[in-house]
Amino acid sequence: MATERGRYYRDPAGGPDLISVTNALGSIAKPALVPWGAGLVADHVIADPIATARRARTEPTRLRRELVALPTGNSDRAKDLGTRVHERAVTLVLNTPYPADPEVEPYAIQLARWFRLWRVDFDRDIEAIETTVLHRRYGYAGTGDLWVWLPTGPFQRRQLWLIDYKTSARKPSTTVYDEQPLQLAALRHAPVLLLPDDSDAPAFKVRRTGLLNLRPRSHRLIEVPSGRAQFRAFLATTRTARYLHTAPSAYPTILPDWAPGSPDRKAA
């Protein structure tokens, strides 16, 4: 559920709400977003410098508002595309209909190619898709994309992977961000699986974790660590996020008794 403090999960068994994994990771500074946003604005200006210069003279306030909003609008569109790709991935595995979406279909084609490359049998190899896991002790929950058996062990022995889909139209397929191993560690180490009827089940014993980077013309599976070090780092983000969500937004100004505006001076 969405709140003023970001996304939280409501525990069907009762008890306090559980902070979402992505909400907790939002407490990590992301310095790459600054040059990315600046690049979007620069590209927009360079694409039509004459019209931009004309608007800078005739309607500077409106132009500035539009330029400032560019990164947020682009980010929202990327999130919406990611959501639709995830929905399409579910229909691909379940072989159910999905409305025509030309923007999504190139990513679905790459996902289908990846399944064929690894000879994934949906009935035999896929344990779960889009499933929520809980860690009540540490107060968080999150939804994993894909639990799948792949022949990556010795002598092609099958191992259970937890895989997170990542979509982008521009970023290289080798892209991995610092917080992504923490995300997978949080999902991997959660001990409870939430079933469709809101009952609990033991979580899967995952052997390996990775990102499946989907691009319109390519895909790449990248293994990322999700061990104890990454899990401890993730737990630190939950503490930071909760502090930020409850911290006051303003603090009192302290003045000496004799200063103008001092409460004691007014009382006198």
User: Ends: how far apart?
Assistant: 51 Å
Major sheet size, sense and barrel closure: 10 strands, mixed
H/E topology pattern: EEEHHHHHHEEEHEEEEHH
Give the averaged pLDDT, no decimals: 92
Number of strands: 10
Question: In one word, what is the shape?
Answer: globular
Spans of at least 5 consecutive residues whose pLDDT stays below 50 are: none
Share of helix, binned: 40-55%
Radius of gyration: 23 Å
The total count of helices amounts to 9
Strand content: 15-25%
Q: From the helix content, strand content and strand pairing, which structural class follows? A: alpha+beta
Q: How would you characterize this protein structure?
A:
This protein is an alpha+beta fold. It is 43% helix and 22% strand. It contains nine helices and ten strands. It has helices spanning 21-25, 33-47, 49-58, 60-94, 105-117, 122-125, 180-189, 228-246, 263-267, and strands at 2-3, 6-9, 18-20, 126-135, 140-150, 159-167, 192-194, 200-202, 208-215, 218-223. Strands 1, 2, 3, 4, 5, 6, 7, 8, 9 and 10 form a ten-stranded mixed β-sheet that branches. Helix 3 crosses helix 4 (60-94) and helix 4 runs parallel beside helix 5. The radius of gyration is 23 Å and the shape is globular. The chain starts with a strand and ends with a helix.
